[in-house]
Amino acid sequence: MIYLGADIGTTRIKAIAYCDDHRRVLATASVQTPVHPTADGATHDPATIREQVLHCLREVVAQLPDRSDVAAICVASLGEEVVLVDEDGTPLGPTPTWYDSPGRAYAAAHPRATNPTYSLFLLRWFAERRAPLAAATVRFTDLGSYVTAALAGLGTELIMDQSHASRTGFFDLRSRRFDADDLSWAGGWADKAPRLVPSGTVVGSLAGPVARQLGLSGDIAVVSGAHDHFAAAFASGVRSAGDAMLSVGTSEAVFVLAPQVPDEAPASIDIGAFVDDRTWYVHRNVRGGQLFSHWRQLLNLPPEPAATWFEPETWPQPGSPVPLCLVDPDLSTATFANLPFTASPTDVMRALAEGLALNCRAMLAETETASGIQVRSLTVAGPAGDNDAWLRMRAAILGRHLRVVRTPEPTALGAAVLAQGAVRGEADVPVETIHVPPPDTDEAQRYYTGLLDAHGRARREPLTQLNRLPVREDQP
């Protein structure tokens, strides 16, 4: 049978068709995710996103040898964003993006310290700053679940999968229900909340008009999706307590799977329901890929993967200062140190990449402590996983062996195998992987030992020392 999966990502929307008879992807399609700048920041238009998902699915279906084999469809997506719909199930307007949400301003007012990107604060913003829209809202949900409901023709009977609910800030982990007090704090949304379902649940059949638009016929199941990072993990075989994932894209997520909800965790840690309805994730997330792309643009570097930036020939000569980048855990600032006047763009980008890797090392340690679980397997997925030199650098700084997914579009594939599991009761692990150990040459061990030591010392020195530029000998 064939299962269709879609991924609404921050940068691109992707769709794939997966055939479980041959355990391979038959077709793919993608478009850039449309973003609209407004006075409130970057926004997504839900109707436009829906049409772009349908466009990708239509392109995928057109490539299939036998359309009658399509059994189910599932959509994974980014999280935290909110779609408000009226009595006809029509979106009431654009939604601010998760990374540029005006709801952040309300996070400090909440009685419990929590993630400022959560939907909770965006709902409060809608209630206070867009009151007519809030009043006209019949139901709300996340972006991916809105598209899922549109595929099934559910109208205002919106659903939300529990992995997306875990990114709202008003999902009670132990009862697996929405918290009425939080929804009241956000502006009285309790009677407008969607129906909660586990990821990988059949929520309906593909609506006739949508099926005709896609060139499909027959009874095709529509299946609840998942947050993008966790869909990618599911496809990659990260499915048991103690498994961990490093998902690298526009954002960089580190999470560990745990058999139960931890009793306590710092405010920087997010905990939520994984896609299997029995396991919990302990998660940290930063916009590492976005920061890296920003600096590439500042330095006018090409967008192609820079395979040589992390190779030994780019390292400083022994005895020379090592350029450092000290990245704040929340990526609010980054401090460069030891950059000589002769520093190249490669020196800057390598230092930034190493700083992000050290930040990742700290995030992984945080998730292990919060979950109480020692990570037994660390899986890496995302575009950066195609860069062998980057992987060796990460393995060295993390001090761990990496299991690297080399299958394109793991999130869309995760949506497809969630659909497979909903229909057949079991889901494949159809990814290709390679194993990357930390480098073991004397040169690499000297370099990374020195790098870790230099970062440790730099963290303990005052900023005035870190920002002091080297003076050339010919200057007074």
Task: Report on this structure.
It is a single chain. The chain is an alpha+beta fold and 476 residues long. The chain has a domain at 2-229: Nucleotidyltransferase, domain 5 (2-Layer Sandwich). It contains 14 helices and 24 strands. The protein has a 7-stranded mixed beta sheet with strand order 18-19-17-16-22-23-24, with helices on both faces. Strands 3-2-1-6-15-14 form a 6-stranded mixed beta sheet. It has a 3-stranded antiparallel beta sheet with strand order 4-5-8. The protein is globular, with a radius of gyration of 23 Å. Residues 333-419 form the Carbohydrate kinase FGGY C-terminal domain. Keywords: Kinase, Transferase.
Strand proportion, as a percent range, falls in 15-25%
CA radius of gyration: 23 Å
What's the total count of β strands?
24
Which strand order does the major sheet show?
18-19-17-16-22-23-24
Organism: Planosporangium thailandense
Domain Carbohydrate kinase FGGY N-terminal: 2-101, 115-234
InterPro entries: ATPase_NBD (IPR043129), Carb_kinase_FGGY (IPR000577), FGGY_C (IPR018485), FGGY_Carb_Kinase (IPR050406), FGGY_N (IPR018484)
Keywords: Kinase, Transferase
Give the SSE layout:
Layout (H helix, E strand, L loop, with lengths): L1 E7 L3 E8 L4 E9 L3 E3 L2 E4 L1 H17 L7 E8 L5 E3 L9 E2 L22 H11 L1 H6 L2 E3 L1 H10 L6 E3 H4 L5 E2 L4 E2 L1 H6 L9 E3 L4 E4 L2 H7 L6 E3 L4 H8 L7 E6 L3 E7 L11 E4 L6 E7 L1 H11 L25 E4 L6 E4 L7 H27 L5 E5 L6 H11 L3 E4 L4 H15 L8 E4 L5 H19 L2 H4 L10
Parallel strand pairs: 1-6, 6-15, 10-13, 16-22, 22-23
Antiparallel strand pairs: 1-2, 2-3, 4-5, 5-8, 7-9, 11-12, 14-15, 16-17, 17-19, 18-19, 20-21, 23-24
Helix pairs in contact: 1-4, 8-12, 9-10, 10-11
